Amino acid sequence: MGEKSAQKKQYILDTARRVFAEKGFKSVTMKDIVEACGISRGGLYLYFDSTEQIFQEILSMEAQEADDLFTGHISEEDTAADILTLFLKEQKKELLQQKGSLTVAVYEYFFANGSTDKNNMLHRQFDAGVRVLEKLIKTGVASGEFYCEDPREAAANIMYVLEGLKINAKTFGITEKMVDGQLAYIMEGLLVEV
Amino acid sequence: MGEKSAQKKQYILDTARRVFAEKGFKSVTMKDIVEACGISRGGLYLYFDSTEQIFQEILSMEAQEADDLFTGHISEEDTAADILTLFLKEQKKELLQQKGSLTVAVYEYFFANGSTDKNNMLHRQFDAGVRVLEKLIKTGVASGEFYCEDPREAAANIMYVLEGLKINAKTFGITEKMVDGQLAYIMEGLLVEV
Amino acid sequence: MGEKSAQKKQYILDTARRVFAEKGFKSVTMKDIVEACGISRGGLYLYFDSTEQIFQEILSMEAQEADDLFTGHISEEDTAADILTLFLKEQKKELLQQKGSLTVAVYEYFFANGSTDKNNMLHRQFDAGVRVLEKLIKTGVASGEFYCEDPREAAANIMYVLEGLKINAKTFGITEKMVDGQLAYIMEGLLVEV
Amino acid sequence: MGEKSAQKKQYILDTARRVFAEKGFKSVTMKDIVEACGISRGGLYLYFDSTEQIFQEILSMEAQEADDLFTGHISEEDTAADILTLFLKEQKKELLQQKGSLTVAVYEYFFANGSTDKNNMLHRQFDAGVRVLEKLIKTGVASGEFYCEDPREAAANIMYVLEGLKINAKTFGITEKMVDGQLAYIMEGLLVEV
DNA sequence: CATGAATGAGAGTTCATTCAT
DNA sequence: GATGAATGAACTCTCATTCAT
Fold first, then answer.
1. CA C34, C1' E7: Å apart?
2. Inter-axis angle of helices B103-113 and A103-113, to 10 degrees?
3. pTM here?
4. Closest CA of chain D from C3, distance in Å
5. Which residues on chain C are in Cβ contact (under 8 Å) with D156?
6. What does the pLDDT look like over A100-130, one tens digit per residue?
């Protein structure tokens, strides 16, 4: 598969990503992707064998980008509270953005493949989130910004709340106010009262 | 529809519930249900037109039972902390129980139908949970058991964490320790320190 | 599957038999049979899962009929030579009849499935033929009609020649004269010269 | 087509021969051959248009070699019985050798193309075999080694038996004992009893 | 009411064949 | 000559849905 094919493969992945974002994982057929890409039936099979394989490759790409995001935060020179605020802001943006989100597809995929899929992306990202947040909280505690008796569980708590918001966003919708309320509640729970 | 038919309809719903618990919502076909019930293809269509309709009726039944559960707690004569502990214990049991749970099916269903489904069951139950917890926290604050500046957001926070735990349980698995950690963290956040 | 379905199943088998007779085994698709039967695509799958399964059932029917034929001969009251002549005459008829013969399909099927197929029909019929002929030759020898030092190999020889004629008939064609020549040669080899 | 191309063409034929030996004729696709050869899809079409054409050219090569074999026998200075024994020995070797044999592919090919293929290789080889054997038997009769009233049919008989053994070998398997039994039977039928 | 045979639409998959490079 | 990406036809198989009995 030469350079040109790599380009086309990427084109298919990008197009398929849109399809998955629209229809979730389970409803997407090879035919859907073929039609979205405007290529021939057989053509798609030159690159991928199944929707599952396509989705996995899309996930790999996403994971890459997500990792980049996470590591980006830590390098800043801001205070712990600033960084946490930034992190939550970004999460909020993602939560409220409807279009182009793979959330539903990802959940559908891992409902079926979560246990068998070694190196489960959702798992890895959740754990990574907890780790980053835990470290951040500890930093904040050390600097006197935060008060927290159990940084580990506090970090996990934040991640669970984000998961909860995410799933509710997809099953019955959330408002910006709801997100703001929770994020404020989280921040206030950590900040040392003046 | 006579009494006999009502019985058969109920039989179909009960059997179909098992099928949905096993396979989620999207993968279940009318054929699956027909086979699980041991009835004829045409027979099923006398009672239901689609898996969606069947699932909706199952959800109605579930909602009824869930409501019963919630209202059950409040009637106790225990302290707010006791009731909350009881509530969380029950949530824990549900979180850790794998078999027979409709969780995945429900999520899959509302991913597709969440916005269109008026009277969305997930939504109603989430709101109900928040309301009950808010009232409970307020009671606890009044009795001096709890300290909480924003009972509303605290209640929502608990519900979001439970959602987060629930979805993680289905996508990559959670351990009892993880649940205990979070539930303890929640309780400690509310209890007035001695 | 009620009585009516049994009839339709038989109809499919009879129709499919014609298709296999025309096109051999490997070239026949489910679609071919569907079209020959004038039924729907899905309809065929109610009765059979694959061309292989259909062919196997056809073979079972054939085997039944073939067995009936064999046993028919022996019951006669004729001399051994008469019976053998009759047997060879019938073989000749089959050899020269082109239409409706499953020969090619059978060979094609057993090329692929001969070793795995327990209870290989071709094998059973060949052995049965040898046994019947051996017994017949021994009878003829006892009655003084035949002269033969090794009835077993003589019987096998006849069966091999018949196989050879059969395959040649299908690969490049044989004439009646060629068959007659061989059959006469076989008879003369056995008959006691006057 | 230059010398280099001729070499490549030969390489394709040799490789394809192995493929046909493994899978017979009908199951082999252009793709199979392309992959076995490790060349490009388009590359194969520069030399051949179809599996049929490839197979025909392979058959031509085989025929050449087979003819060489036949003529080889006659040139010896041995007695007729010796030559016949040698011939049968070689036939036995071929019958028992499973790997690398084109037998199945050849039959499959001629099932479909036997009648249309002018200059049918199977036909020519069968006839050639009969002619050689007939001449040999006549020689043996003249020298007093053999007794045979109808050399022509005796020769044909041997060829038919060999065909029968060949096809049985491919459809349900034969043992060395079975071959030996028949070959001995043939020899004894010709030899003048001492 | 209940049955289950029948239909046909549609998804998956494989290959022969072509063609721009 | 040689490549291999691309196409589209053909086949397999599964279901939702209908309907005569």
1. 13
2. 150
3. 0.91
4. 36
5. 178, 181-182, 185
6. 899 999 999 999 998 887 778 899 999 999 9
